[in-house]
Design goal:
single chain, about 110 residues, alpha+beta, Ribosomal Protein L30, Chain: A
Length: about 110
């Protein structure tokens, strides 16, 4: 059902029709962790660089995440909606391959 309203301004009549907004049960998209897997070839400098350029970490937080990846074997770079997480993972993987690194990226649902 729509409603109609008329307004006049300086001799000009305008007719506006509006429809009620449907009640959509919109839900937040599920979030996914973008996880870097440590290896013995990819340099820490490269990991820091990707965290800064692709995930917008500050150099300080990028270094902190990189140390965690190095010490624990894996670390979360970001938590994003699935499509964004997947795209960023692909970007990092392509950069790694183009630079000769075997860096692995894994996506996991956030709990």
């Amino acid at each position: 059902m729509s409603t109609t309203s008329e307004k006049e301004y300086m001799g000009t009549k305008a007719v506006t029709k509006t429809r009620p907004i449907p009640n959509l049960d919109l839900k937040e998209p599920p979030m996914y962790k973008v996880i870097y897997i440590n290896d013995n070839v990819t340099t820490m400098e490269f990991v820091v660089e990707t965290l800064v350029t692709i995930f917008n970490h500050t150099p300080e937080t990028a270094e902190s995440v990189t140390l965690k990846i190095h010490e624990e074997g894996a670390g979360t770079a970001a938590v994003l909606p699935y499509e964004m997480a997947e795209q960023k993972g692909v970007e990092v993987t392509q950069l790694a391959r183009n630079n000769g690194f075997p860096l692995q990226i894994k996506l996991e649902p956030e709990e």
